[in-house]
Amino acid sequence: MKKFLLVTLFTILSIAFLAACGTSDDNATGSEEGTEEKKVLTMGTSADFPPFETIDAASGEYVGFDIDLANAIADKLGYELKIENMDFGGLISALQSERLDFIISGMSATEERKKSVDFSMEYHKSGEMFVTLKDSGIKTLEDLEGKTVGVQLGSIQEEGAKKIKEETLKSLEISALNKAPELIQELKAGRIDAVYLDKTVAVGFIEELDLAGFDDPTEASPGMAIAFAKGDELVDEFNKVLEEMKENGELEKLQKQWMEE
């Protein structure tokens, strides 16, 4: 009899314990379901390209037109944004290896790049410009014959410089570096004769550092767009937001904020 009572008591206590555990698990699950976390999207950029993307010296934060644009799109789509800073030349390979979800880095949607990635609609177009020292005497494309031009590694300007050398200036020398500020340092040190940059970026350096420059008279490059892995459904999501921002004036407002003011 005592044995039966002990077994019964043990069984009741076990059921009560399991029920309590079950209740605890259920509450935890309910809590997780009730607090839905935002999906994180990792954006790749080369933060050396003001006013599109750079690092604020005071705060250490990423700032620029592309940064604000990426944050706006992510917010409208309900994503949390994480930014990975790397050399421009490594961005597409990082995207292809799934380290990144997309790229916003002043990247032009060239036909060559379209073989490797998909692009959104264009969100900005500015053309190219050559930056020189004020006393260099270099004022036209022809003046670059026999000179050395600096370009950012992997950029459309690198492709453009090679095309100019092949078609027009046979003796043009090309020096490719990873970051735009490094090119400006090389120019000021006299190690190169000109820097070939996106026009918006070039104008910023010219005004800030009292340099000179002239527009590239050759064929204009494609506009800037957001890059994604081939077949990524995010392209349609981002395009929808970009179209809305274009129609309601948000895109133009961002451009004025970073490129005019």
UniProtKB/TrEMBL annotation:
Domain Ionotropic glutamate receptor C-terminal: residue ranges: 40-261
Keyword Transmembrane helix assigned: no
Pfam families reported for this sequence: SBP_bac_3
PROSITE patterns: PROKAR_LIPOPROTEIN, SBP_BACTERIAL_3
UniProt domain Solute-binding protein family 3/N-terminal: residue ranges: 40-261
Residues making up the signal peptide according to the UniProt record: 1-19
InterPro entries: Iontro_rcpt_C, SBP_3_CS, Solute-binding_3/MltF_N
SMART domains: PBPb (SM00062), PBPe (SM00079)
SUPFAM superfamilies, per the entry: Periplasmic binding protein-like II
Subcellular location per the Swiss-Prot or TrEMBL entry: Cell envelope
Keywords: Lipoprotein, Palmitate, Signal
Keyword Ribosomal protein (UniProt): no
Similarity remark: Belongs to the bacterial solute-binding protein 3 family.
Protein name: Transporter substrate-binding domain-containing protein
The organism of origin for this protein: Fredinandcohnia salidurans
Taxonomic lineage: Bacteria, Bacillati, Bacillota, Bacilli, Bacillales
